Amino acid sequence: MKNSILILIIAVFFTACGITEKQEISFNKPKIQIPKKQPAPKNNKGSLYSMQGASLFADKKDLQVGDIIQINISESLSSDSTNSRELSSSRDSNLGGGILASTGTNSLNGTVSSLANKLNGTLGVGFSTNSSSSDSGEATSSFDETFETVISAIIEETYQNGNYFIKGSKELLIDGQKQEIIVSGVIRPYDITSDNSIESSQMANLKVLYDKEGEEADIMETPWGTKIIRAIWPF
Predict the structure, then answer these.
(1) How far is it, in rounded angstroms, from Cα 125 to Cα 97?
(2) Which residues form a coiled coil (predicted)?
């Protein structure tokens, strides 16, 4: 019975250690911008045109809340770093002492001094120590990632300076492989091209979340047993 309880406790412990907290990202609207007040729509009786509709002469970049913009995402991350360290230290110490003090230089005192030196050599204290230590290490890391895709976003808010806050998401489920993309950021109307698209490099407060679930993601993830060994390995 005790062995069963012990095995159960160990299993629960390793299971808890194997669970990793999922990283999350917030897609809330930035607070540094001041939203523009949207006027209430007016009913113009007897008129064929409305001030709330699309203008026949204004630039197409003058969009409204709810309009759709295409985002061309092309982001790359690369880093190369090398760290090295070397430490060394050495120490020597000597300590000695006799139990009798030395005497004068006359014949009688010389005989006593000789006996005292022999006694000190036999019963005296004398030792020496030396120590040395060294530590050296070197670490090198390198990674290169590229992410490219196209996603449509909706204008959720217009600011007083004319900028737009946009947010878009895409979710795919193909053969048990789930992919989710969420994008948000602030754009300028002047950066929108004639085909109603914008580059991700022109977006401020850009946030991109790309999450994968399924067999492919499981293969790319480090096994939980390996994570535990790396966490507790002291060397």
Answers:
(1) 5
(2) none
Are 68 and 150 contacting, i.e. CB atoms less than 8 angstroms apart? no
State which amino acid sits at residue 40. A
CB 229 within 8 A of CB 222: no
The secondary structure of residue 220, as a DSSP letter, is: H
Are 146 and 208 in contact by the 8 Å Cβ rule? The answer is no
Specify burial of residue 55 (Cβ count, 10 A radius: 0-12, 13-18, 19+).
exposed
Neighbours of 83 (CB within 10 A): 9
Structural contact between residues 83 and 142, judged by C-beta atoms closer than 8 angstroms: no
Residue 172 phi, psi (nearest 5): -125, 140
Sorting pLDDT into bands at 50, 70 and 90, what band is 87? Answer: confident
Helix/strand/coil for 162: coil
Contact 76, 101 (CB under 8 A): no
Q: Are 171 and 35 in contact (CB under 8 A)?
A: no
Task: Work out the burial of residue 131: count CB atoms within 10 Å of its CB; fewer than 13 is exposed, 13-18 middle, 19 or more buried.
Answer: exposed
pLDDT at residue 1 in the model: 61
pTM, to two decimals: 0.51
Within 10 angstroms of residue 199's Cβ, the number of other Cβ atoms is 13
Residue 82 pLDDT: 84
Contact 64, 158 (CB under 8 A): yes
